[in-house]
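Researcher: Good morning. I'm working through a list of sequences from a screen, and I'd like to move beyond sequence-only analysis. For each chain I'm collecting a predicted structure so we can compare shapes side by side. This is the next one on the list. No need for commentary yet; just the structure.
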Amino acid sequence: MTSRPTPLDSDAVSDPEVAERIEDAKSGWYGDAAFFGAMAHCPEIFNHIVAAFESFGQRANVDTELLELMRLKVAESHQCAYCATVRTLDVRDAVKPKEDAVFGDITGDELTRREYLAVSLAKHLSEDPHRIRDDFFENLQEVFTEAEIIELLLFGSLEVGLDRFCIALELQPTDDSAYPDDVEYPLENPRPKTD
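Model: Good morning. Structure tokens for this chain:
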């Protein structure tokens, strides 16, 4: 038995909106409710964070596939076993062929220029944002508007922080999801263990 806080299930919360979001996470989002269940300990904050995530990926050049590639790079960079194991279900199939280009050294072979730059930004934010140079921003400006660059920075920064949240909890997928419920920290192999 761990002394770390554990995720709540929908029947353990009193806020109906939080309970509904936890249930939604089981069949949507990641197909797993552990992340939402962990945040549910703080219902108001949880609702705001989910609302913020729902607002990302609405621009033409910043879609949910691009954000998923960034999310996976952040997970690998921090060795977050939970975040690298679960997938955003809506884009899982579209992103899967590009995972090898994201994990390890980022390769441009299977990525578009904007995907390569966004994943590189995720890596910079994870490893050392002090070393992001002006010429990197010039490259970003070739394919993204300033508002889109800010969106990428905000999304990547949230992912960096929330990865550390999951790592601190050593978050495990729930028993009723399709994912293994015994992922090991730190992450050794950033690949999903289910199809």
